Amino acid sequence: MNKSLPIIFESLFNIAYIIVIWIIVIKMNQNIHTVQPKNKIVAKLFNLAFLLLAIGDTGHVGFRVVAYLLGGLDTSIHFFGIQMSLVGLGMLITAYTVTFFYIILVFVWQFRYNKPSNFITILLIAAGFVRLILMALPGNVWSVPSVKNQIGFIRNIPLFIQGAGIIILYFVSAHKTKDALFRNIAICILLSFAFYLPVILYAHTIPAIGTLMIPKTIAYVLVAILAYQNIWHKQN
Questions:
Q1: In angstroms, rounded to a whole number, what is the distance separating the alpha carbons of residues 102 and 98?
Q2: What is the greatest pairwise CA distance in the chain?
Q3: Closest of 95, 17, 97 to residue 62, by C-alpha
Q4: Hey, which residues does 78 pair with through a beta bridge?
């Protein structure tokens, strides 16, 4: 393993993140009995959303740690008979789980505010399924650690549509109902995409920009913590 400080720092952060997000997911599941009946469905949806996030990110950042230990990010394995980058496999896993994560957040909003399906919710769910189809196309080249190509950019457009839609839905409803929790969740999601956009656009040419994935990841952890503190234990 390359003992350079950036790699050591990244690996330690990734390990700490995986531990923290799994602890939160497990505590959400174990303490579901503390949730008030009116919030039970929302709590279960949040639990499922963050379970998917934990699974995906265990593959994404966890496989990066393993790859470093095995010699570098180019480390490959055989996956269903295909020679595949370990990091590429992790990226594939998290790409699918985060898509479902945002689909679930649509239902969180509906049950939180007792809202029926409308044009925006249908659009966001449809964007998620369009992204799932785009990610299945061979041009994605998941077999390598990272590649800059047109489809790699295009597949992120539906994800940004999902994120933007969730931010708008949460902000508007939170403002109308003075719901501090969902206002803060919307802010965290907005920050996560603000940090993620430069990575998508420039990380291939300016690798240092990839460090913005750290505050992006922290923003997701904050969403999980906010949800757990306010829905599981706060009596309101």
A1: 6
A2: 53
A3: 17
A4: 83
CA proximity to 65, closest of 11, 17, 2, 3:
11
Note the pLDDT of residue 32: 95
Among 224, 160, 210, residue whose Cα is nearest residue 60: 210
CA-to-CA distance for 65 and 8, rounded, in angstroms? Answer: 9
Residue 8: CA atoms inside 13 Å, Cβ hemisphere, count?
Answer: 4
User: How remote is the C-alpha of 77 from its chain's centroid?
Assistant: 24
Residue 131 carries which side chain, given as an amino acid letter?
R
Identify the bridge partners of residue 76 per DSSP, sorted by sequence position.
85
Q: How many beta carbons lie within 10 A of that of residue 235, not counting itself?
A: 5
Give pTM, 2 decimals: 0.91
Query: What tokens appear for 101 in the block?
Result: 């994560």
* Residue matched to tokens 């939170």: 174
Residues 16-52 have pLDDT tens digits of 999 999 999 999 999 999 999 999 999 999 999 999 9
Torsion region of 141: left, alpha or beta (phi above 0 gives left; psi -120 to 50 gives alpha): left
Length of the chain measured in residues = 236
| pLDDT reported for residue 136 | 87
Does 233 have pLDDT greater than 70?
yes
What separation in angstroms does the CA of 211 have from each of 1, 10, 197, 202? 20, 9, 12, 12
Tokens matching residue 178: 């003075």
Strand ranges inside 62-122, DSSP E: 76-79, 82-85
Q: What whole-number distance in Å separates Cα of residue 70 and Cα of residue 7?
A: 13
